[in-house]
Amino acid sequence: MRPMSPRKAAALPDGGSLRDHLIATAERVIAERGTVGLTVRAIAREASVADGVLYNHFADKEELLAHALTAHVRKVEQGLGTLPEPGTGTVEANLEAYVAYGLAMHRAILPAFTGFFSQPKVLARFAELGGPGEDWRDRLAGYLRAERDLGRLPRGARTDAAARIMVGFCHEVVISALFDERAPTEPAPEAVDDLVAVVLRGVAG
């Protein structure tokens, strides 16, 4: 029996490219099964292509996995809705919305990163794919700077430091729950209130 052509086996819908098909397949595997023990062979099987076909479209496995991880993060973000715009609502309520978004995002994506902690090349490629201003941290810092420019935050507000505090809060809550099943997966409402108060008024406020 003649072996099936890898390109023919991919059966791409709507004339899509095989490269995109491979990224979409890898993203789906990550979403459904996580990344622990994920192999290029498993992705090839899911995509109905021969193992070597992947290397016709990617320089190495790290490139494919980084693109798939990026696609996974983008898909998660699309399901989280929009973030408040500068100058709308109140700064307090908007920052609470940013925290809620950050917590939900990290809960959804951090499990996918755990399988790559031992593969720094994948994480480095992932970092290279993100443009400045695209991720939640950049948008949070940009929001704070915009509110400062609008006069809704003090002229001397240290917005980058404030953003780091909020990012660190989200990381601490989600990572604690990821590695300790006894840790709460949601912070108490007063904890978020206190966080926003410290960001806006300082630790002595």
TrEMBL record:
Keywords assigned by UniProt, alphabetized: DNA-binding, Transcription, Transcription regulation
DNA-binding region (UniProt annotation): 39-58
Molecular function as annotated in GO: DNA-binding transcription factor activity; transcription cis-regulatory region binding
InterPro entries documented for this protein: Homeodomain-like_sf, HTH-type_TetR-like_transc_reg, HTH_TetR, Tet_transcr_reg_TetR-rel_C_sf
Superkingdom, taxonomy of origin: Bacteria
Location of the HTH tetR-type domain: 16-76
Presence of the UniProt keyword Repressor in the record: no
PROSITE patterns: HTH_TETR_2 (PS50977)
Annotated protein name in UniProt: TetR/AcrR family transcriptional regulator
Organism: Streptomyces mesophilus
Lineage: Bacteria, Bacillati, Actinomycetota, Actinomycetes, Kitasatosporales
